[in-house]
Every structure is written in structure tokens, then in C-alpha cells.
Amino acid sequence: MAVTHVVTFSWVEGTAPETVEDIRTRLQTWIDKGELEGLVAWQAGTDLGLADGNAAFAVSATFTDQDAYERYRDDPEHRSIIAEHIAPRIATRTAVQFAH
After folding, report:
1. CA dist 89 to 17, 57, 61, Å?
2. How far is residue 85's CA from residue 18's CA, in Å, rounded to a whole number?
């Protein structure tokens, strides 16, 4: 059974667009290495501002199964990007993982 992970962020006030793009680039570079067994699809980007109340940024990833999601979640490079670049800038975060 496939698993999709969706996470949204709003950034602390004063977070520059260049900082957000740096975060997206770091994540994309990690994904592009192709080392994540079971990753089916991955996207990330800044909200387009089409509706009030949206989060500022989102990541969506689909995996072949729960084990593949957990490898992604626990990957040391992923954890490092989160700890060093994302977590210090988060105002709010929401996430969901669902099977399909």
C-alpha cells in the first residue's frame, strides 16, 4: 500500500524568500541524489497566494510503502536539513501521512 506524506510550513516573520529557496534547493539536491529506495514522487514549493490562510510552503512525497516513508523521514541528511535550516524558521507546521 502506497503512503503519501504532506507537510506544510509557515515561516517566522522576517524569513527571506531567498532563505526559503535555499531550503527548497537543499531538499531537492538531496532528493536528486536518487538514494531513497521506494520514493515514487516528490514535490516542494512556495504557496502561490491564491487563498487566504494558506501555509507558506509545502512538501508532498509519495512512497511505495510505510517502510520507504520511514527511511525518508529518518534519513540522516534529511534530519540535518530539518534541524539546521527548517526547524529554526518554522512558525507553524502541519503534516499528514495517508495510505492509498
Report:
1. 12, 12, 21
2. 12
Split at pLDDT 50, 70, 90, the class of 93 is very high
Residues across the chain: 100
**Dist CA 53 CA 31 (whole Å):** 29
SS3 59: strand
Q: What is the DSSP letter of 14?
A: T
Which residues, at least 6 apart from 18, have a Cβ–Cβ distance to it below 8 Å? none
What is the average pLDDT across 34-46?
A: 98
List of domains in the chain:
3-99 (3.30.70.100)
Between CA 95 and CA 27 the distance in angstroms is 17
